[in-house]
Design brief:
alpha+beta; about 775 residues; 14 helices; seven-stranded mixed sheet
């Protein structure tokens, strides 16, 4: 709304205006003192958009005045390497509209006296900037649109700025994998999506290889369906592969997906060394990729290689041994009278170590035991050649177990990056096992290419050491765990353990703290502890924050273990935390409400009640999903606000930013999330369906969404945008509808229904009991 202020009209109506002012003063004097409100805030706000390379995207800019605005001066900041401004359109009919854009990456817009109206009184789209997304070699997932400026009523006043952004679709990066083997052996090389935004709908590519060292045995498709075709020429040294999604973008490839796998035979006469595998990128007929809308994507390709290992010498190494020199004895020095005695250095003990490959014993490691910082530490380093030879005899998904005997404070399993890459290609799993715990880590979750990129480019993967560790925490960490448990009313059942993965290159060490899928840790329940008196496993972060991780109790060879499933590394323990809500004693959702409450997924009210039939807000539901999945909350102030109506001071800020980063939630077209609005059942089911993807849970039935929902009388009331998500929840057994055979998609979901949905999701995904 805009208000017209006309000087002549004001003069003509002056007596009436004075009378009205007098009446208002009388009313104010006779009225009780009003409540005190915060001063209103002038706001400038940028919208959001989405587009691909070459597209134009319109970004609206809004002004929301505190009392009124008669003029403004707003600076729009953008990344000139990604965006190119095309034009700026006045949307407020300004009589004084000026655009200044001499500086790349910045546009200044000045305007005043808006058409027939003098003042802007409500939130108004004052102008729109049209950007073109330029073709660059590598695009980010989003590019920000910054704002700064002043608005004027009586004098210029700095306005609070809400930035916008443009989501960039149609970009991808392909990575050809690495493998190693002996002459005469066979190796698998995966071709994967290193990055895709939002998803790849088709591709075609040529990969060139060394025809003198390698020959293609087969090419098979990875994840995905629809049309796939391939060809190769061993005499010329090339591979062709092409794929297209024919389901309208329903089955696109995403980041981390395997496009196809090439099986190479290493020729008997192949010379040792790296044999490059490169994607030919000369033209679209040799390397093409499009998104789900069939728009050509910006794309890059990282080369791979097959490393031909030298045959073992007589000692098992790559070269024959030379003569072994006789060591010269070093006498122990005699201390002088009155001097400090020399303490002899305790050398580490070394021994051969056995590992298990699919349960079969293999002498493929060396164990070193020594005291480090006062703690007994055993490190087992795996032998690359022996492990590679053993894995070549196994099918995909082999499990390589590193058993370490009892009596250690710290145990470490070490592989080099090339070993990890080869295990990735075979979808193998490495497991570090002690008497107290086991850590089972799929090689793909290490993501050795991303790890290598942290250290720099052109690195040899064999120079990177990957160390998987289970350790008893230091004393100060134990104290943090005990304090956190006492504060939260938790009883510790199992002593805490720290699980970590480190990448080491030279003098640098990088922690691998998060994974793209749940990683399993198994902790032994002490003898004499009733497994029925265990609630859940928890993560305790260094700041004392405690969060639930999906946990179930399993029995292995007559002994009980807590199986913890987590997406991060940290310090873990197992606790007893029984909780019952008084007002669900006779409620149909009693078991789920109390279970989720005990696991710290749902909270009660201050009086210890659950209020099961109360509607739940969008923010509350997002928080339940984040806690239920065991996601690590975003740190306070760790990034710009995702939504215009969610700020750092809000209790739900971390949960909403975490859910958004995990692609569990979206906002509305106006850039808001509306956290305090009650959430509908179909909105909640769409979020749960996205959470199913995090847990890798698939729907139980095949067929279209309409077919799955046909039994429900009100299936037609489901919004089109929610249809697939609602169908996934129904087919997976998470939602069964309300009484009367209805889904009630537009009804508000209750707190009881939210607790039941979360519990069913975790159970159907086999993450909890």
């Amino acid at each position: 709304m805009k208000t017209v202020m006309n000087d002549k009209r004001l003069m003509r109506n002056a007596p009436i205006v004075l009378c009205l002012i007098f009446c208002l003063l009388v009313l104010l004097l006779l009225s009780p003192a009003p409540a005190v409100h915060a001063d209103p805030i002038n706001t400038i706000e940028a919208g959001t958009g989405i587009g691909g390379v070459g597209d134009t995207v319109d970004i609206p800019v809004y002004v929301t005045p505190a009392d009124g605005v008669i003029a403004y001066e707003i600076t729009v900041a953008y990344d000139a390497a990604v965006l190119e401004p095309v034009r700026v359109d006045d949307k407020a009919s300004s009589a004084g509209f000026v655009v200044e854009g001499a500086t790349p990456g910045e546009i200044v817009v000045i305007a005043s006296t808006f058409g027939d109206d003098t003042f802007i009184m409500d939130r108004t789209n004052v102008f729109t900037v049209r950007f073109r997304i330029v073709a660059v070699e590598s695009l980010p997932a989003t590019t920000p649109i910054g704002l700064a400026g002043t608005v004027t009523l009586d004098e210029p006043v700095a306005a609070t700025a809400v930035p916008g952004s443009i989501a960039l679709r149609g970009q991808t990066a392909i990575a050809v994998g690495n493998a190693s083997g002996l002459p005469g052996s066979t190796v698998d090389v995966p071709v994967t999506v290193a990055a895709a935004s939002p998803g790849m709908g088709s591709y075609g590519m040529q990969i060139d290889f060394d025809k003198d060292a390698l020959e293609v045995a087969s090419i098979r498709q990875g994840a995905g369906g629809a049309i796939f075709d391939s060809n190769y020429d061993n005499a010329a040294g090339w591979i062709l592969a092409a794929w297209a999604d024919l389901d309208g973008g329903d089955n696109t490839y995403g980041t981390g997906d395997t496009l196809f796998i090439v099986t190479f035979n290493i020729k008997e006469n192949a010379t040792g060394g790296d044999k490059p595998l490169t994607v030919a990128t000369g033209d679209l007929s040799r390397f093409a990729a499009s998104d789900a809308m069939a728009v050509e994507m910006a794309k890059t390709a990282a080369a791979g290689k097959v490393t031909v290992l030298a045959p073992p010498g007589p000692d098992g190494g790559g070269d024959p041994p030379g003569p072994v020199p006789t060591p010269t004895p070093v006498p122990t020095p005699t201390p002088k009278p009155g001097s400090t005695p020399v303490v002899p250095k305790v050398e580490p003990t070394n021994a051969g170590a056995e590992v298990l490959v699919n349960g079969k014993t293999e002498s493929a490691g060396t164990a070193t035991t020594q005291r480090v910082n006062g703690r007994q530490t055993t490190r087992v380093v795996l032998d690359e050649l022996k492990l590679q030879q053993r894995l070549e005899q196994e099918k995909e998904r082999a499990v390589v177990t590193i058993p370490v005997p009892a009596g250690n404070d710290v145990v470490v399993g070490e592989l080099n990056g090339r070993m990890v890459k080869n295990m990735e290609a075979k979808l193998a799993v490495v497991e570090l096992r002690t008497e107290q715990a086991a850590y089972k880590l799929p090689a793909q979750q290490i993501d050795i290419d991303a790890v290598s990129a942290r250290f720099g480019t052109r690195l040899d993967l064999q120079d990177i050491k990957i160390r998987i560790e289970i350790a008893a925490p230091a004393a100060d960490t134990v104290q943090i765990v005990e304090n956190a448990a006492a504060e939260g009313g938790l009883t510790i059942v199992v002593p805490p353990l720290n699980f970590s993965v480190q990448a080491v290159y030279g003098e640098r060490t990088e922690e691998i703290t998060a994974f793209q899928a749940y990683v399993e840790r198994t902790v032994a329940i002490p003898d004499g502890v009733d497994p029925g008196r265990i609630t859940t496993g928890v993560v305790v972060d260094p700041d004392g924050t405690v969060r639930h991780v999906p946990t179930k109790i399993v029995s292995i060879d007559g002994k009980f273990y807590a199986q913890l499933n987590s997406l991060t590394n940290s310090t873990y323990t197992v606790v007893w935390h029984p909780l019952t809500f008084a007002d669900v004693e006779e409620h149909w959702a009693k078991e789920a409400a109390n279970d989720m409450g005990s696991r710290m997924v749902v909270n009660g009210t201050e009086d210890g009640l659950f209020q099961p039939d109360r509607a739940i807000t969008r923010a509350e539901f997002a928080a339940i999903i984040v806690r239920g999945l065991g996601l690590k909350p975003a740190a306070a102030g760790s990034g710009a606000n995702v939504f215009a109506d969610v700020g750092e001071a809000d209790w739900f800020d971390a949960a909403i930013r975490t859910a958004y980063a995990a692609r569990l939630i979206d906002g509305f077209e106006d850039g808001t999330f509306r956290p305090n609005e009650s959430i509908t059942r179909e909105q909640a089911m769409l979020i749960v369906a996205k959470a199913m993807a995090v847990t890798k849970l698939q729907g139980g039935e095949q067929g279209t969404a309409e077919t799955v929902l046909q039994p429900f009388a009100d299936a037609g009331a489901v919004s089109r945008w929610a249809l697939a998500g609602v169908a996934d929840c129904v087919s997976a057994g998470i939602v069964s509808g309300r009484s009367g055979g209805e889904l009630a998609p537009q009804a508000l979901i209750t707190r009881a229904e939210a607790a039941v949905a979360m519990q069913r999701l975790l159970r159907q995904a086999d993450l909890i009991d």
